[in-house]
Amino acid sequence: MKVLITAGPTIESIDPVRYLTNRSSGKMGYALAAAAAKRGHSVLLISGPTSLEIPEGVDFIPIENAAEMYQAVASQISRHDLAIFTAAVADYTPSKIAEQKLKKAEDEMTLTLKRTKDILGSAREAMNFEGILVGFAAETENLLENARSKCLKKRCNLIVANDVSRSDIGFDSSENEVTLVYPDHSETLPQDSKENLALHLIEIIEGI
Ligand code: PMT
Fold it and tell me: CATH fold of 2-94+109-207, please?
């Protein structure tokens, strides 16, 4: 299969030296890319900035912000049979990037943000993607309910949900525990290294 994977965080500039980002290390997405390549698939990894090495045999497009990730996915997705979205994409970005470094003045300052495009949510409609679509859901409450709603709304074959309120799994840890949420049922996999989980997930997705 030809597999597209998004990974890592996005960084949204405020001014030339400051930005908004999140705690994604990229480990889950890079482990999936390595696992898919190991299983003989052709893999394109589209990633925000991380400190990880690009897995062997994997094609790579680096991006910085949510708008660049949207463009990269939109231009590539139609060439793929499977798309897996593990990236932690900013939902909001500063409305304006200041040209010069912002100076401190008042005791409080307000930053105005605007919505970014939902890349996973655009795959079926705006990008006309007809392949297997797998999203992730980073939840701190109502894991199953929120993940199922994402699965149905974004017309995914599968949502891989993780509880990101726990520090031993999810963001920036080496292990994860995920619940596979399909349109009509769900199944929790035991906690394991992201590498082992990634291999297991790729095998499960091959079954779809
Ligand atoms: O990178 P690690 O440190 O290994 O951590 C892994 C992880 C916790 C980041 C990963 O397992 C995970 O949960 N990724 C999804 C993070 C996320 O942003 O979840 P969400 O519930 O906010 O988004 C739902 C889905 O929509 C995700 O597939 C996301 O990639 C996608 N999305 C979100 C916003 C947006 N503008 N465009 C998107 O495509």
Answer: Rossmann fold (3.40.50)
